[in-house]
Amino acid sequence: MEETIGVTSAAQIPKQRGEALQDTAVRYAEERHWDVFPGAWLESFEGTWRCSCGEVACPAPGAHPVRDDWPTQATGSATVARRVWAKQPNASILLPTGRTFDAIDVPETAGFLALARMERMELTLGPVTCTPDRRMQFFVLPGASAKVPDLVRKLGWPPAALDLVTLGEGAYVAAPPTRFGASGAVQWANRPTPANRWLPDAEEVISPLSYACGREARRK
């Protein structure tokens, strides 16, 4: 369900299973106590796939909010989530940040390097997503967006020099198994488990993430 499927053209993207999306959204609300809300989805059009929003050049086809008031639409109720996805079973699953978690967004290459360093350091990791546009989001405790710039400076990096973005209040992430355009599905690089129900603080993971992003910046 959450596995990336290789494709050679947009028309080969498997159709999203509405039951799987609904069940997964309900599980996120019920088991993780995450707020969830439905986003856009992919539609078949003249032999290819496009975003349900109808925008030909949509920057995030099938994986963005469809309403301006999406923050009020987000729910932590499993019952409400089940009802919402019953009405639109193909809707992507989006998670608002700044509530039960923030997310630190980095390039995929830096993210995997940081993951390896964190494992060697035996750091406690929260869930981590990997998106088809080659980004990774590390889930951390809320409040990270206010802390990260100063933490990065203390490590000797000007924040603007690193491709490292903190997603807090007013932002969101796409959750597995949401499909993102023709590229595939969002996956878990580190799955939610009972062991990582308690998220790390940004201070615990910012050093390896900054190092990895700095190394990536020097390569460009």
TrEMBL record:
Matches recorded under InterPro entries: DNA_primase/pol_bifunc_N
Short name of any one Pfam family annotated for the protein: Prim-Pol
Domain called DNA primase/polymerase bifunctional N-terminal: residue spans: 25-206
Protein name: DNA primase
